[in-house]
Amino acid sequence: MLLAAAWISMPAFGATALQCVPYARIVSGVNIWGDALTWWDQAADRYKRGHEPRRGAVLAFRPAGPMTLGHVAVVSKILGERRMLIRHANWSVPGAIEEDVLAIDVSEEGDWSEVRVWHSPTQTMGARTNPTFGFIYPDKPGLRSFDPDPALGSSIRLAGMDPAIAARISHEARAAAPAAAPATARPPAMPRLKMDMRAIAFADAAPSGRSLKDIIADVKRDARLR
């Protein structure tokens, strides 16, 4: 199975897992501390904010459902008016880093106030719609490298996007411009993810406390509730 190696190398159950906040702070250069749900207000007098995705910007998620403390992710590539790639941690799996995975705008106004995000274990777009505050723009746009640091919690790189797929999606986005895709339209192509085996070098060997079957069951339950 494509992601089997990731589950072998998951952080040990009960161990501190890498959170989205320190990962986003390092990768974006947006120097804000505290829970993700506070970032939007904290940024008001320190950074520019808006509703247009830009490379290196932080997308701040509102608390919703089980995501009680919000979430933050960093924009890595713009694919079109309603599609982009993001980098974030602690989303699909506790402590996991997902680099350059798909996020789509499903808001009625096309302002990225509601998004759906790629779910690596099931290789599909997540079933849940996630409300957001908007984007926080760093003083110096760009992406910074993230080096695993045990002091920040156990982590793995669950998956990375295949460069060939990313290039094809980008080409399709340019070909479709300038027309924006309808909010309810399905993206013309979904990225397939491949394992980054470098995870073995810095991840715990103990299995996760939650199995892949449990997470898939959660996604299916979420879909039925909607």
Description:
InterPro entries: CHAP_dom, Papain-like_cys_pep_sf. It holds the Pfam family CHAP. It comes from Sphingobium quisquiliarum P25. Residues 1-116 form the Peptidase C51 domain. With 226 residues, the chain is α+β, with helices and mostly antiparallel strands. It has a single domain (4-225), classed as endopeptidase fold (from Nostoc punctiforme). It is 22% helix and 26% strand. It is built from six helices and ten strands, in the order αααβββββββββαβαα. A six-stranded antiparallel barrel has the order 2-3-4-5-6-8. The model is unreliable at 1-14 and 187-209 (pLDDT under 50).
Characteristics:
single chain; 226 residues; alpha+beta; endopeptidase fold (from Nostoc punctiforme); six-stranded antiparallel β-barrel; 6 helices; disordered N terminus
Q: Helicity range of the residues?
A: 10-25%
Note the overall shape: globular
Average pLDDT: 78
- The order of strands across the largest sheet is 2-3-4-5-6-8
> At the third CATH level, what is the topology name?
endopeptidase fold (from Nostoc punctiforme)
Distance between the termini: 29 Å
Order of helices and strands: HHHEEEEEEEEEHEHH
Structural classification: alpha+beta
Regions with little confidence, pLDDT below 50 for 5+ residues: 1-14, 187-209
Largest sheet: 6 strands, antiparallel, barrel
Q: What's the oligomerization state? A: single chain
- Helices, by number, come to 6
Number of strands: 10
Considering the protein shown, what is the CATH homologous superfamily?
Answer: endopeptidase domain like (from Nostoc punctiforme)
- % residues in beta strands: 25-35%
Organism: Sphingobium quisquiliarum P25
Protein name: Peptidase C51 domain-containing protein
Pfam families: CHAP
InterPro entries: CHAP_dom, Papain-like_cys_pep_sf
